[in-house]
Amino acid sequence: MGTFHYPNGKKVTSIVKKQSSSSTKKEISYSNRGMSLEDDINQSNEYYLLTNQAIIHKKPTPVQIVNVEYPKRSAAVIREAYFKLASTTDYNGVYKGRYIDFEAKETKNKTSFPLKNFHEHQLLHMQHILDHGGISFVILRFSQTDESYLFDSSHLISFWNEQREGRKSIPKGEIEEKGHSITIGYQPRLNYLQVVDSVYF
């Protein structure tokens, strides 16, 4: 059992499991509708990189390890660690000479997207990207219906600010109206750059 500490001092425990050699060689079927949003985006980013369309990577989370045990000479188990910084957004990179920065979130809710899935520091980061002329958005997935949308950060920030008036979520109808549906295919799995082209270029 490993313990991670967020910058606010809260503890998060996680079970660290050693990956078997067979799991690292697991075949992935991109026709599988059950893949997570992160898997879909990572596969798509690999395709964009291989085809020289864009350089977009998942941001690493900086972690400071403070307690490690060595039950075997060849194995180390992290028992306690701290997240050094609160995370901003999931992905960033360069596309057609523009800086691109986005967050990816999923919900099992069928009719709305809960605002509690986001954090204030993430919204501030998105606003800074917009202020400096970068491309900033979120990719929202309704996992029950396997629908994904690109939603500009400016719209998300507007809904976020309405929380003071009691808003708790973004209605799916608003996401369909203000956002843009992303096609799910084979290569790339989630062709979000096609939408970026139509919205920002």
Keywords:
single chain; 201 residues; alpha+beta; six-stranded mixed β-sheet; four-stranded mixed β-sheet; 34% strand; cytoplasm; DNA repair; magnesium; endonuclease; DNA recombination
Molecular shape? globular
The gyration radius over C-alpha positions equals 19 Å
- Side by side, the strands of the main sheet go 3-6-7-9-10-12
Topology, number of strands: 12
Unreliable stretches covering 5 or more consecutive residues = 14-34
Mean pLDDT: 84
Residue share in helix: 25-40%
Helix/strand order, N-terminal first: EEHHEEEEEEHEEHEHEH
Quote the beta fraction: 25-35%
Structural class: alpha+beta
Give a short account of the largest sheet.
Answer: 6 strands, mixed
**End-to-end gap:** 48 Å
Helix tally? Answer: 6
EC number: 3.1.21.10
Main location: cytoplasm
Catalytic activity: Endonucleolytic cleavage at a junction such as a reciprocal single-stranded crossover between two homologous DNA duplexes (Holliday junction)
InterPro entries: Resolv_RecU, Restrct_endonuc-II-like, tRNA_endonuc-like_dom_sf
Summarize the structure in words.
With 201 residues, this protein is an alpha+beta fold. Helix content is 27%, strand content 34%. It has a 6-stranded mixed beta sheet, sandwiched between helices. The chain is globular.
